[in-house]
Design goal:
Length: about 325
């Protein structure tokens, strides 16, 4: 099937075939990252604007790096330095960027649905780099890419997502992708942060850490998203850590070959012990590196590229 999608807004709307096409294209681009000359000419002459109206380290830098590896010109605009601080609307900012002849907008915004809104107003592709607690599609793509690299097929694999599921766009995007890839997903954490309605994503909902972690082949930790919580969802961070933080004892309940993942930013000593984050089972920095290849694939495909035309001379 040819790639036809211009925007990347959610993983909910992607088919399994589209996820496969992105992962296949990312695998080809990943080979270029190991060369001494890392650039390919795929987007030469195009201009990509990274419009980040919420803080970011890895997503913004990975999109920046991905665009440069594709030979595109990149402009990064941070919320604190943009005219949104003077009251300019997202619509006017987007139309201004389009009038400045940008070819793609990568948008991070605190409002769920803002990339969809912009995609309906503009004629250029819009890529969602995280919209509130709704979705973070490139994170879900790089996470599942990393799992497939390590485990092969995800069909029937036990994947556990542990932590603040309620406010997590990363959890939602992973849930959509993992369901399509055939994984058995358990979401676990305090009942205030892991409500029963996540069963609608095809996941098992658990508040019992030991049974959730037992024999899991992947555990993904999530940060507590204080910035999205209007009231305390548990008594204290110390209590959260004592009940749900991943430490060596709890990691021993996992499958012996299990991988430990985290989308970042990490709060060491809260959701994960520092030695586990740095240990041999952690793939946290592999996730970051894979984020470049996956975002190269997304920018390339949404610009009209086709997976079969990715030629990478190694
Ligand atoms: N995982 C993630 O989205 O990290 P940043 O907020 O640093 O981009």
């Amino acid at each position: 099937m040819p790639w036809t999608r211009r925007h990347l807004l959610t993983l909910e709307e992607l088919s399994l075939d589209e996820i496969d096409q992105i992962h296949k294209t990312a695998a080809a681009f990943k080979r270029t990252l190991k060369r001494s000359v890392k650039k390919v000419p795929a987007l030469r002459g195009k201009t990509i604007v990274n419009l980040f109206l919420e803080p970011s380290t890895r997503t913004r830098m990975a999109f920046d790096m991905a665009a440069k590896r594709l030979s595109a010109d990149v402009i990064c605009l941070d919320g604190s330095k943009s005219s949104t601080t003077k009251g300019e609307s997202l619509r006017d900012t987007g139309e201004t960027i389009q009038a400045l002849q940008a070819d793609i907008i990568v948008l991070r915004h605190s409002a769920p649905g803002s990339p969809l809104y912009l995609s309906k107003l503009l004629n250029i592709p819009v890529i969602n780099a995280g919209d509130g607690a709704h979705e973070h599609p490139t994170q879900g793509l790089l996470d599942t890419f990393t799992m497939r690299e390590r485990l092969g097929s995800l069909k029937g694999r036990k994947v556990v997502i542990l932590g603040d599921i309620l406010f997590s766009r990363v959890a939602r995007s992973n849930l959509h992708a993992l369901r399509k890839l055939g994984a058995n997903v358990t979401v676990v954490g305090p009942s205030t942060l892991v409500p029963e309605h996540f069963k609608a994503f095809g996941a098992t909902v658990s508040h019992d850490l030991r049974s959730a972690l037992a024999d899991a082949e992947v555990v993904m930790l999530l940060r507590i998203q204080h910035e999205r919580q209007s009231k305390g969802m548990f008594p204290s961070l110390g209590e959260y850590t004592s009940l749900f933080g991943l430490n060596n004892t709890r990691a021993s309940w996992l499958d012996p070959k299990a991988i430990i993942m985290h989308p970042g930013p990490i709060n060491r000593g809260v959701e994960i012990d520092s030695d586990l984050a740095d240990g041999s089972r952690s793939v946290i920095l592999d996730q970051v590196t894979n984020g470049i290849a996956v975002r190269m694939a997304v920018l390339y495909l949404c610009s009209g590229g086709q997976p079969e035309f990715v030629t990478v001379n190694s």
